[in-house]
Amino acid sequence: MTVRLEKQGAIARLVIDRAAKRNAITQAMWDLFSSLLDDAMKDAAIKVVILQSAVDGVFSAGADISEFATGALDPAWQKMNQAAIRRVQSELARAPKPVIALIDGDCVGGGCGLAIACDIRVASPRARFGITPAKLGLVYSLHDTKLLVDLVGPGQAKRMLFSGQLLDGAEAHRIGLVELLSEDAASEANQLAEVIASNSPQAIRAIKSIIRRILDGQPDDDASTQQMFSAAFGSEDFAEGVAAFLAKRKAQFK
Prior knowledge:
Number of helices: 11
């Protein structure tokens, strides 16, 4: 399979495995992303997902241009393809569990679109980031553009989109496109996933939901967010967290 889900304990890996084509993404792969992510979200044992390549040195070169160049001439295929991309990015951004993108090598076009939809990006110095619709005479959708602007601000988003140039890992880290830059990005991503998985899954779901509401334009609490805040005090996770703190032991969340 060109995309697969691997599970080990509380961590699942959503793996892109098409190295011969630099992990270029086909329509079938977009459909697989959606179903595999759904599997990870429904599995109660999984607390964190890492999105990564099966091989070092590449994340994804983006859309499979050989398929895209032909398919894009068909309005029905174009609509189907755009809907699939939008669905996957929306599901990543709004998934109840955290998703970390582990990036080593080129992360371009649709590959970069996947990475910016994740919660946190961990990259190696040899990672390269670019979004290149201007080089192909295309337009980046508003939803995709907002994900980028939310991370780097409008000025840096314009710089990336207007130029289509590739940014190295250090520059991506400097402008906020990457949260963590490490020579051993895989270990860094794994350690972060383990730390997140050790915390309260209930709290993390609520935190992610609230941050997404802020990014989507909600300026203040409503009845739903107030309920999240209040309900936490009566939860099993809160009881376990307090008991562990008082006993000076590590909390064991379910």
